[in-house]
């Protein structure tokens, strides 16, 4: 099935992908970008062994040698990839099927498949969903090592604000598909301009050292609207404690140094006044 692109801009490394054919786009994206998904056991093929799936993800151009050496080289490369993601018992894993592995091991296999082609960008969509806390920490450290040691850019999509604060350099906050704030992670979390970002920070106990024991955490009133009935203008408007009549208009993106926000009444300006 062919999907239509509705974005105004779609570029990669300075190249306008909207001007390319779908085949040219797939070639560039398939070469430079990889993705790992949430619920890894469902993303893997349940009818194929891990060895077959991992070896299939290895591009032929990365294998040096004659054609008759390819099977051996693929297996050798697959073992090396498993070692890179922290799996030592490669014999057992390669012979296993996804349903025989834990969610944590399946996610490590997914990461190994994603880095098999040495991508320049790795998109991690909720990579630690439904995983134990110790496994979550291992995976985040693993992703951080790829970024620091291999120069691989990582786009992390997550609701784990503590991990985002610890492992990311830049942060973009979205609410109902609307970009509300972006900039350096430390600046946004220490001085949020948008009420939604402020609510996220206040909802995490680790960011509220002055919070009394057993005190209730901050929460915005109301509930998240459905995508079929999104509010006009600022989508946080019906739940925002600072909303006014101007909020029925979509806020323009403003900039203060390297801090971007979309709000008619940013919190820091309110505090200064």
Descriptive terms for the model:
273 residues; 4-stranded antiparallel beta sheet; 3-stranded parallel beta sheet; 11 helices; 9 strands
If strands are numbered along the chain, what order do they take across the biggest sheet? 6-7-9-8
Strand composition percent: 5-15%
| Corresponding CATH superfamily of the largest domain | P-loop containing nucleotide triphosphate hydrolases
Topology as a string of helices (H) and strands (E): EEHEHHHHHEHEHEEHHEEH
Number of domains: 2
Number of strands: 9
Protein architecture, described:
The protein is an alpha/beta fold. The chain folds into two domains: 145 residues, Rossmann fold, CATH 3.40.50.300; 92 residues, no CATH class. The strands form three sheets. It has a four-stranded antiparallel sheet.
